[in-house]
Amino acid sequence: MPRLLRRLVKFLLWAMAASAALVLILRWVPPPGTALMVERKVESWMDGEPIDLQRDWRPWKELPDTLKVAVIAGEDQRFAEHWGFDFTAIRQALAHNERGGSLRGASTLSQQVAKNLFLWSGRSWLRKGLEAWFTGLIELFWPKQRILEVYLNSVEWGDGIFGAEAAARHHFRIGAPYLSAQQASLLAAVLPNPHRWNAGRPNAYVNRRASWIRQQMRQLGNGHYLLQLPAGHPAWLAAMFGR
User: How sure is the predictor about 103, in pLDDT bands with cuts at 50, 70 and 90?
Assistant: First the structure.
């Protein structure tokens, strides 16, 4: 084997081991920031309009059940069932996109955590491949509750607004634990495009989408749905040996 190829293989093995160790550590340690936050900061500098990033970590027990169920209802209704990839949603999105019109995505909450936490924006095959790798690691090492906890503390809810606590204070002037079902549904409703839509000043479309999300929350069972999410074991381990 040529020396260059051996070095490349060694580098890839070290990179895989390092990424796996990082994901394992973050099962217990709150991420201090995300790759998306760094990207937004750099973009603001390049545009000559610096922004202050707002983010305050809230542990699982302090995040309201209404918001947990709202984002599942709006973004990933098979979150408790899949192991990182919702192949049914992927097939439906591909069929929809082939018919034309607006593009529809099929990213699960796990995929969104992988992308926001570790990677850059874009649609290249390299980024998609890395997203799949990190999604697999997250599902392998983290329980579903941890995935949702990191998601809610990292997702973007406006310019410089990251996580549930910053979003609740920015849009509704309250702390995240005090969000009502309506407020939670409005936050979930704007997630597909938080730079275009505003949860605190919703337009007609956002209000309709929030109403649909509340209906889906009831069909999922509201807070009872969360009992399906393993707390102490990754999903595959919980499935094999029980919670």
Answer: very low
The phi-psi region of residue 84 (left if phi > 0; otherwise alpha if psi is between -120 and 50; otherwise beta) is: left
Look up tokens 């979930």; give the residue.
Answer: 188
What's the predicted TM-score (pTM) here?
A: 0.91
pLDDT tens, 181-228? 999 999 999 999 999 999 999 999 999 999 999 999 999 999 999 998
Q: How far is CA 211 from the centre of its chain?
A: 21
Residue found under tokens 């529809």: 104
Query: What proportions of the chain, in percent to the nearest 5, are helix, strand and coil?
Result: 65, 0, 35
Class of domain 34-241: mainly alpha
Least confident of 1-5, 131-135, 161-165: 1-5
Residues in the chain, total: 243
Please choose, from the candidates 13, 57, 5, 69, the residue with its C-alpha nearest in 3D space to the C-alpha of residue 31: 57
CA–CA separation, 186 and 29 (whole Å): 29
202: left (phi over 0), alpha (psi -120 to 50) or beta: beta
Paired tokens of 92: 């439906």
CA–CA dist 243, 239 (Å, integer): 8
In this structure, the number of other CB atoms found within 10 A of the CB of residue 76 comes to: 22
Q: Where are the domains of the chain?
A: 34-241
